[in-house]
UniProtKB/TrEMBL annotation:
Domain Isochorismatase-like, residue spans: 10-181
Organism this protein belongs to: Ktedonospora formicarum
Keywords from the UniProt entry: Hydrolase
Protein name per its UniProtKB record: Cysteine hydrolase
A Pfam entry, by short name: Isochorismatase
One MF term in the entry's GO annotations: isochorismatase activity
Species lineage: Bacteria, Bacillati, Chloroflexota, Ktedonobacteria, Ktedonobacterales
Length: 188
């Protein structure tokens, strides 16, 4: 029997919304309201909400000195990156899935693909911080894995406003529908 609801194979990804990460972005909290609204609407529509955060074991055994970004983290031994605490205003519920990744993309070093395939998910709705980091890397990898993609533009943030604008207006539309959270929730 065919699906009667178009969103039955959809999941909302809430990426890198950890306390430690948000603390590095001065104006990031400005986008928490549309993020909260998107999460609430997804739950009401029975769309899985999947939280993805970056995390490492104590001592950072997953991090190579050759990795420019994470290698510096390892040298500083930042304890926050061993803590997966999601920002409290949008914290996961017991029914949500929480994934730990080891690199920038939500797929790299995680079991995200296994979780998505097990649930028959073919459409990903992307949100998170930073637009030029986890959102870009996950979008590219998800497109290569043949997922249908939507990016909620007001649920993404980057410290570089120009990079954020170019990604949302010129790069992402090549592989995803880019819309506001309110437009997405109206369709549910």
């Amino acid at each position: 029997m065919p699906d009667t609801q178009p969103h039955t194979h959809t999941a909302l990804l809430v990426m890198d919304m950890q306390v430690e990460i948000l603390s590095r972005y001065a104006h990031a909290k400005d986008f928490l309201t549309p993020m909260h609204d998107a999460i609430s609407a997804a739950r009401a529509a029975l769309i899985p909400v999947i939280y993805v955060g970056v995390g490492f074991r104590p001592g950072y055994p997953e991090v190579s000195a050759n990795n420019k970004g994470f290698g510096a983290l390892k040298q500083r031994q930042m304890s926050g990156m061993t803590n997966m605490e999601i920002y409290p205003d949008i914290a996961p519920q017991p029914t949500d899935v929480v994934i730990t990744k080891r690199r920038v993309s939500a797929f790299c070093g995680s079991d995200l693909d296994v979780v998505l395939r097990a649930q028959g998910i073919t459409h990903l709705v992307l949100t998170g911080i930073a637009t030029s980091g986890v959102v870009l890397s996950t979008l590219r990898e998800a497109a290569d894995k043949d997922f249908q993609l939507t990016v909620l533009s007001d649920c993404c943030f980057d410290n570089d406003e120009e990079v954020h604008r170019v990604l949302l207006s010129k790069v992402f539309p090549r592989q995803a529908e880019v819309i506001q959270a309110s437009d997405w929730t109206e369709k549910l």
